[in-house]
Amino acid sequence: MSSQLRIGVLAEARYLIQSQPTGLSAELQNQGHQVTVINPQEAFYVMGDDRWFRGLDLIVGRGRSWALLALLGWVERSGMLTINRQASIAAVHNKAQMSIALAASGLPIPQTFFGSIEYLAREIPRQSYPIILKPIFGDNSRGLLVIETPEDLARIEWPEPVALAQRYFQTDGYDLKLYGIGDEIWAVRKRSPFNQPLAEWAEGLVTLTPELQGLGQHCGRLFGLDLFGVDCIMTDEGPLIIEINDYPNYTNVPDANARLVSYVTSRAREVSAR
Fold it and tell me: Cβ–Cβ contacts within 10 Å for residue 96, how many?
């Protein structure tokens, strides 16, 4: 393989105006690599015609739409490397599937319930309230509701047949995000969307303890994710995992673009050398 790589960036339109994958694309080009940006909603494909990705060394995907997941699967059938893999993205997009895997692996998560609104309202113990109600598919905190009592939950008009409910914890107003690029982990303090801050702390990097590093690495390996973020809250019992996201923006991670390029290009060359 030549020193110049041909990298495809497959991304939904909503992400093409965010810091990722635009930062990755810009840094790849700065280092002399060729970048092809592919928006799955703005293209036309003929099944069996691979010319739209032929000649690329690797495809990096950001998004969770059906179109994007279908195209990632198409590329993977050809034997090309993708970051992240289609199955890994799908596994964390489905919050019920993700929670089942986390609980089965013994990772620390809040008490979590799954079912229809009728059964959740009837069966969740009153002492487990308040809870956060979540759609099975969703991201960027969309569709989340804090519910105080079983009676409140019974009155909810939920648009889906089932939902996920997690016990809600009062925090200091900040969440902890574990960002991962391969096995490299960073811990970042971020303002919570649900708790008012008890004190004005600066958002940004915090000390990465061995416990947090191991937690982040375990989550990445569990779902086979190369690029990921783990949303956590800190409690008296230690960190609890709220959810996992594929390919985040890496806010406050130092030299994130260069680190992403180093990882992506190393993987591409590693596969080519086999």
Answer: 16
Read off the pLDDT of each residue in 185-192 and give the average, rounded to a whole number.
Answer: 93
Residue 154 lies inside a defined structural domain of this protein:
yes
Residue count of the chain: 274
Contact 215, 178 (CB under 8 A): yes
Q: Residue 213: give the domain boundaries.
A: 171-246
Residue in 117, 21, 25, 126 with CA at minimum distance from that of residue 63:
21
Residues near 266 by beta carbon (within 8 Å), at least 6 away in sequence? none
Question: 11 and 37 in contact (C-beta within 8 Å)?
Answer: yes
Within-domain flag for 179 = yes
Supply the pTM of this predicted model.
Answer: 0.93
Say whether both 133 and 177 belong to one domain: no
User: What is the pairing mode between strands 6-11 and 58-62?
Assistant: parallel
- When the pLDDT of each residue in the chain is averaged and rounded to a whole number, the result is 93
* Secondary structure of residue 83 in the 3-state scheme: strand
- Tell me the pLDDT band of 192, cut-offs 50, 70 and 90: confident
CA–centroid distance for 6 within its chain: 25
Asked whether the beta carbons of 237 and 108 are under 8 A apart, the reply is: yes
> What is the rounded CA–CA span in Å between residue 246 and residue 63?
8
Over range 203-229, report the average pLDDT.
Answer: 97
How far apart are the C-alpha atoms of 158 and 165, rounded to whole Å?
12
